[in-house]
Structures are given as structure tokens and as C-alpha cells.
What we know:
Layout: E1 9-16, H1 19-31, E2 37-50, E3 53-67, H2 71-81, E4 89-93, H3 99-108
Antiparallel strand pairs: 1-3, 1-4, 2-3
Helix pairs in contact: 1-2
Amino acid sequence: MTDKSSSGYVTVFVTAANKDEAEVIARTLVQDRLVACANVMDVVTSYFRWEGKVQTEDEVVLLAKSRSALFPDIEARVKELHSYDCPCIVAWPIEEGSADYLAWIEAETSTR
């Protein structure tokens, strides 16, 4: 483990309408060097309130590892590629991690 608590690395959580959309977003974020890695996890069932009604939809989850400084660019790119009016794009800090893995995130992402 590293001593880089709240080190500026984040996991970004995005839900997508389907696997194809999630894969396009994941591949684009990696190609654009906004994230070092993106995992696409097939169908989850989401329950949410939208336009005054409780909704239930099958969605796909994308988890990506990056730097917090890149979140505004990640958010903008996801919004460009996403089919939802209001996509879920949230991040939480990586409090601790393998020094080698965090260095890899650093090396594979761009600060533009």
C-alpha cells in the first residue's frame, strides 16, 4: 500500500443504457488517455425516480480508474457519447492503492 491517502486518483462510476454504449465510452476514455483502465460489467437493475415516476431499467456499469484532475474532461466526454439526458457520472477517491498500480494510472493518463 502507498501512503498517498486522497492522492488525486479516482474511480469513476458510469451507468449506460447497454453494453455497446458502455464499451464505446470505455474504449474512447482509454484511447483519449482520460482513464488508465475501464471495466464494463454487464446488466444491473437500476431503480430510480425520473420525471416524477419510479422507474426500473437494466443498465450496464462502467468503472474507470483515473486522476481526479481529469474528471471534468471525463464528464464532458461521457456526456458527448452517452444516450441519456442526465447520465450517472460520479467519482470517489482512491484512498490507498498499490504504488505500482497508482504509478501505472499516472503513466497512462494525460493531464492535458
